[in-house]
Amino acid sequence: MIWNLIGAPSTLECPDCLFAFDVTLYYDAANSTGSDNAGCVAEDLAFSYGYIEDYYGYPALSVGYDYAGSTYWYAFAYAEFDASNDTLKYRSTRSYVDYAYSGYYTDYVTYYYTRYYTGEAQLTR
Length: 125
Fold this sequence. Notes:
Elements: E1 3-9, E2 19-27, E3 45-55, E4 58-67, E5 70-82, E6 87-92, E7 96-101, E8 111-115, E9 118-122
Antiparallel strand pairs: 1-2, 2-3, 3-4, 4-5, 5-6, 6-9, 7-8
């Protein structure tokens, strides 16, 4: 599944972030091969992302969310920021390719899942 992203400075506070931005993800149906099954969402989405240089010892891309009036940030991808050209690269932390699953929720029919994502963003000042 492929999305094209556009972002702007975040409206959420992220004291641990080097920078944070609100992102709109536009689903690219013409170039995607996924569908709405297996928990995949084939539609436009919106998130707040932040880059944290030291998230428990690793640079990470995190997603911000509001819960009960408080903002929390959860790291979901390894990240690398190159300040010389303002480029942010990221890849999934928990990933698998061709993971077989068969069980109650699939009527014991085996399905194969892939969960891997990667991206690159060019930041502008």
